[in-house]
Specification:
The complex is a heterodimer.
Chain A lengths: L2 E14 L2 E15 L4 E5 L6 H8 L7 E6 L2 E2 L4 H6 L1 E4 L11 H11 L5 H11 L15 H13 L5 E5 L7 H16 L3 E6 L2 H7 L2 E6 L2 E6 L1 H8 L2 E7 L2 H8 L5 E5 L2 E6 L2 H14 L4 E8 L2 H9 L3 H7 L1
Helix pairs in contact in A: 3-4, 3-5, 4-5, 8-11
Chain B lengths: L1 H17 L2 H21 L8 H22 L3 H8 L2 H7 L4 H29 L6 H29 L2 H17 L12 H6 L4 H13 L7 H28 L1
Classes of the chains: A alpha/beta, B mainly alpha.
Main location (chain B): membrane
Subcellular location (chain B): Cell membrane; Membrane
Family (chain B): Belongs to the ABC-2 integral membrane protein family.
């Protein structure tokens, strides 16, 4: 176990003209990450992902809770935790005016790496940055900058790497490229804790993940288990009478969910359930505008656990 | 601890000189002041020669670069606050004060370099200064720079916004300059300004600088200036290190 955290809580107090406001960012989070695992924290903006990661990274002191990270107590030995950690923040921490090589080298020196020159060359090569090593940060593209940020975080060879929203703002190609590189970390034995609000990212990258909402863990498991828990497939129907349609198909489904004129029907086997479902609706005289059959996603898991879709939750935050 | 401070000093110095054109511009400013302002001041100086004017103005120009060069160095921290670099240092094993001390040390080294250049120009224009006085002037300037740099880093970490920072600096700049008698001797000023001037720390630095350039080593303004600035420098440096702690937790 590389991270064992229990009961983490953090409340922020802000003073403004409107008076004192308190925000309970994290309200009791337990988290266990195995050695060598890629563990995801999935949730909408404002769910408490970044606060959780910042607490585990020794940046914020938790109000309550305990954690042992890479064998050291978070609260009693923060310095020892920092030595074993690679940390890539949401902002990245790549300076505009300094070239990649100098920034990576500096990080290696701060960590007291025995041969900072060699360690820098190695990590530059590993992230395909050798050609770009001497260009200042501002001339790099978003994807290149992210790679530099991760290279800085890895130059001292930490057993554990934190990635806070590593692909936010990247185009699909760069995201896919970064995913491959993060997967390669698993092969080198580095454990990864990453936060994301992208469902596909959590699904594609993580060995295990937890879904957080409003500072609480709402679900935890492997992506496959979580989806299986909800159901195999989702049939999405658009109709003028969603309520009546829901009553009609209730007996055939594991769960139904109405959202405006949309009816989501969760079934184990969509292909075989569909004909019977359509027949039942026909008999009750429910007219359909459209119909779609999909494999259930982590969004369906989120919907089942919180009553909102991740997209709605993100827009509201 | 010392290793990390040296490390950060070196990193900041390399950053500063990565593009040598900007430090060069920074050095040009006081030199231009000497070349263009000293002749202007000549008609008002007792004695009336350019050398007399320079003896008045060179120490003021040196303290000016010390204060205003270093006061602006905090802007770098705001950028690093935003791009996540400071956050990254905070999660590293870096000795926290070194992050700020490295910058302050860099500012002082750059200042001494600039001061030497100003002195060379002043000497070329006919000003003479003894060796002891020279060393004391440089030390005084370094102390002034230490104070201003610490203040700037602390201000940057507190204000955390370039716009707010530049407005704050601009607000204080003019009164501090005029009340130090940098451009015009404070003896020209009305009574209330003469009363306020000693409350301005920079006034003491300029007075001591003038005493040193005048060869008056026993002038009481010299120990006063050193006491004021070493005290203030300790305070602002501690403040800036504390401000960093707020961010790093």
């Amino acid at each position: 176990m590389i991270i064992q955290a229990h009961g983490l809580r953090k409340t922020f107090t802000t003073r403004s003209r409107k008076g004192v406001q308190t925000v309970e960012a994290v309200r009791g989070v337990d988290l266990d990450v195995e050695k060598g695992e890629i563990f995801g924290v999935l949730g909408p903006n404002g769910a408490g992902k970044t606060t959780t990661i910042r607490m585990l990274a020794t940046l914020i002191t938790p109000d309550a809770g305990t954690a042992v990270i890479a064998g050291h107590d978070l609260l009693k030995e923060p310095a020892a935790v920092r030595r074993r950690l690679g940390y890539v923040s949401q902002a990245g921490g790549v300076e505009d005016t300094v070239n990649a090589r100098a920034q990576i080298m500096m990080a290696a020196r701060i960590h007291g790496v025995a041969d900072p020159g060699r360690a820098t060359a190695e990590v530059l090569d590993r992230f395909g940055l050798t050609e770009l090593a001497d260009r200042p940060g501002r001339t790099l593209s978003g994807g290149q900058k992210r790679r530099v940020a991760i290279a800085i975080g890895l130059v001292h060879g930490p057993p554990l790497l934190f990635l806070d929203e590593p692909t936010t703002g990247l185009d699909p190609q760069n995201r896919a490229n970064l995913w491959d590189r993060i997967r390669q970390l698993r092969e080198s034995g580095t454990s990864v804790l990453l936060s994301t609000h992208y469902l596909d990212e959590a699904d594609a990258l993580c060995d295990r993940l937890m879904i957080v909402d409003h500072g609480l863990v709402v679900a935890e498991g492997t992506p496959a288990d979580l989806k299986r828990e909800v159901s195999g497939d989702v049939i999405t129907l658009r109709t003028d009478q969603p309520g009546r349609a829901a009553d009609t198909v209730k007996a055939l489904a594991r769960e139904t969910r109405v959202d405006d004129d949309l009816l989501r029907v969760y079934v184990d086997d969509g292909e075989h359930a569909l004909p019977g479902l359509l027949r039942a609706l026909e008999e009750q005289g429910v007219a359909l505008t459209s119909i779609a059959l999909d494999r259930s996603t982590l969004d369906d898991v989120f919907l089942a656990k919180t009553g909102r879709t991740l997209r709605d939750a993100g827009a509201a935050a | 601890m010392i290793r990390h401070t040296v490390l950060f000093t070196g990193y900041e110095l390399r950053k500063q000189f990565a593009n040598p054109i900007w430090p060069l511009f920074g050095i040009m400013q006081p030199v231009l002041y000497l070349l263009m302002y000293a002749p202007l001041l000549r008609t008002m100086t007792p004695g009336g020669t350019t050398v007399d004017a320079l003896r008045m103005f060179t120490p003021a120009a040196m303290m000016m670069i010390a204060v205003f060069g270093a006061l602006f160095s905090g802007f770098g921290l705001i950028a690093e606050l935003r791009d996540g670099t400071l956050e990254r240092y905070a999660v590293s094993p870096a000795w926290r004060p070194a992050i700020v001390l490295g910058r302050v040390a860099k500012d002082m080294l750059v200042l001494v370099l600039q001061a030497v250049l100003v002195l060379v120009v002043a000497m070329a224009m006919g000003v003479r200064i003894g060796a002891v006085e020279l060393v004391l002037v440089l030390l005084l300037m370094a102390a002034t720079g230490l104070f201003a740099s610490g203040l700037s880093q602390g201000l940057a970490l507190t204000v955390r916004d370039e716009n707010g920072m530049s407005q704050t600096l601009n607000l204080f700049m003019l009164p501090i300059m005029l009340l130090a008698g940098m451009f015009l001797p404070i003896s020209f000023a009305p009574g209330w300004m003469q009363f306020l001037a000693p409350l301005n720390p920079l006034y003491h630095a300029v007075e001591a600088g003038r005493a040193l350039f005048g060869g008056r080593l026993s002038d009481p303004s010299i120990p006063i200036a050193f006491a004021v600035f070493l005290g203030l420098a300790v305070l602002t440096t501690i403040w800036s290190m504390r401000s960093l702690r707020k961010i790093a937790g």
